Amino acid sequence: MARYRDAHVGGCTEATVQQHADGSILLRSTEALRWYPARLTDCLEQWAAEAPDRSFVARRGADGAWQHVSYAQMLQRVQAMAQALLDAGLSRERPLAILSGNDVEHLTLALAAMWAGVPYIPVSTAYSLISQDFGKLRHILAITEPGMVFASGPEYARAIAATVPADLPVVLAQGQLEGRATRRFDDMLATAPGATLAGAHARVDADTVAKLLFTSGSTREPKGVITTHRMLCSNQQMIRQCLAFLADEPPVLLDWLPWNHVFGGSHNVGIVLYNGGTLYLDDGKPTPAGMQETLRNLREISPSIYFNVPKGFEEIASAMDSDTRLRDTLFARCKALMYAGAGLSQAVWDKLDMHAEASIGERIRIVTSLGMTETAPSSTYAVGTAVAAGHVGLPNPGVDVKLVADAGSGKTEIRFRGPNVMPGYWRLPEVSAASFDDEGFYRTGDAVRWVDAADPQRGLLFDGRIAEDFKLASGTFVSVGPLRARIVVAGHPCVQDAVITGLNRNEVGALIIPRADELKRLLGAAADAPLPEVLQSAAARAFFQAMADRLAHEATGSASRVARLHVLAEPPSIDKGEITDKGSINQRAVLGHRAALVEAMYEGPAADPWIILPQGAADPTAE
């Protein structure tokens, strides 16, 4: 039996199960939610008093050395900046928009806005630096009507010129914008806090809006999730009870996850602040170039808990094959690993276990959760040593979970109610009302099922998004989420995702979204080789043919058999809403924009010369 490093966990390991007359099931943790503060900034004040010299945040400087800001220093910065924001006329109706990524200035402004009772809007950097039409940025600024915009430097000039009115104040951390007056961040830090700030801070309570987080997934225009102090503080207390080791000693995090997303900006930053820990800002990310910085940092910093997306863990697991320093530093004091954003393959999971055993003689538990922007984010946790890929666990203390049968798909939807659930979307009252059922549960649209129906205490499994599922012409339901996961595993490491086709057709098809860098590396192609040229090569064709044959061989019926596929040479577009800023694929948008390609794929190779059909497999209509 595998040994695991001891880690103090709890909170979500047992639940009561109540069957209701309407067929729904109510789950509640057997552990009550304990006290939590009214304002997240109360934690900053607490740790500035109890551990003033402890490092709160650190980031590498230009010389490569880590530059630290203590809790006492951050409190001073936050109060000065909060007064500057009020002096500039910011308020609930005139919030602060932050266009740039994770840095000390961003964190200072975020906490300052919360201290003063001013909502802030962390906007995806992709909407400014990758987008060509700035449509999503323009939409966010229009719906929020900010009183000030912050950016780290002049690299945001084009986006600001296109979307920010000339009379709206712009603050930069460094540099200047040609033809436009700007304020300097450092000048605002020189502001002396006064009575105005004291009064504003006193009015901040649990229901004050802390920030607006914009969703990125299922619609063309992002929706602003109203995030209150109550949501943030209650969720951090839930997390502390589920991952109780966070309170045993101040946590140390090394993290790159972007703050415009709830995982990085609410979950991870919140863990540090709530528990008096230290956050090392990782300027890397899970890309071929970005991972080098992450690996460099992990060779120096030993986190007590480590978070990443599955692609990041995949890269780290592979790097540890030949880098014992990386392996030993990562596992030196780590109590748990956690992923989010997508499913972690069991192969990567097993490799992480192998490396931990080689380094410290035991495994590190890998914890998982189910949550979303609307729930601040975590509503369930799976923390045991029997957790496997796909598990999402049982409810957090204080969260009511309702399981409701969906007649259309035959699946079970999970819904949430609790202090961590949003009051609604910003200035979208009708959409907000429709997002809750008549008992006040947030309708997630996520499907779950029991790990073991005979033993509910083993928890729940994620079962895909209900809205993505569809029927073939035969009336057979296609479960899109699990099928996409199978395709990614079959195409590892060259497949990022797949868009499933076949609504009202006889066969399931797939549009394959390749990882261009991994495909070029596998085939020995030049890094700058055009993707269409690579895909036309015999080697690429052979790779995807083998993948198609494997998928067909493993299929159990028409709903799980990919009968035709097409590998996309044109990457998904962020401006068309086909891909989100965090890299997840919008199935509906891709199908809508590429309808002609789907038609050609079903007409056959004559219409689509890049179509790949499985060879030597069973009749796709046979069950």
Any overview of this molecule?
The chain is of the alpha/beta class. Among the domains are: 166 residues, Rossmann fold; 135 residues, ANL, C-terminal domain (GMP Synthetase, Chain A, domain 3, 2-Layer Sandwich), CATH 3.30.300. 34% of the residues lie in helices and 21% in strands. The chain has 22 helices and 27 strands. The protein has an 11-stranded mixed sheet with strand order 1-2-19-20-21-22-18-17-16-15-14. Strands 6-5-7-8-9 form a 5-stranded parallel sheet. The chain has a 4-stranded mixed sheet with strand order 4-3-13-12. It is globular. 49% of the residues are buried.
Q: Which descriptor suits the 3D outline?
A: globular
Placed side by side, the strands forming the largest sheet appear as 1-2-19-20-21-22-18-17-16-15-14
Let me know the number of strands.
27
The assigned CATH architecture of the domain at 39-204 is 3-Layer(aba) Sandwich
Oligomer: single chain
The biggest beta sheet reads: 11 strands, mixed
- Please work out how many helical segments DSSP would assign: 22
Low-confidence stretches: 617-623
If you compute it from the alpha carbons, what radius of gyration comes out, rounded to the nearest whole angstrom? 25 Å
Derived from helix and strand composition plus strand pairing, the structural class reads: alpha/beta
- Strand residues, percent: 15-25%
Might you state the CATH topology name of the domain at 39-204?
Rossmann fold
- CA distance, first residue to last residue: 39 Å
Average pLDDT, rounded to a whole number, is: 94
Q: What's the level 1 CATH class of the domain at 39-204? A: Alpha Beta
Report helical residue fraction: 25-40%
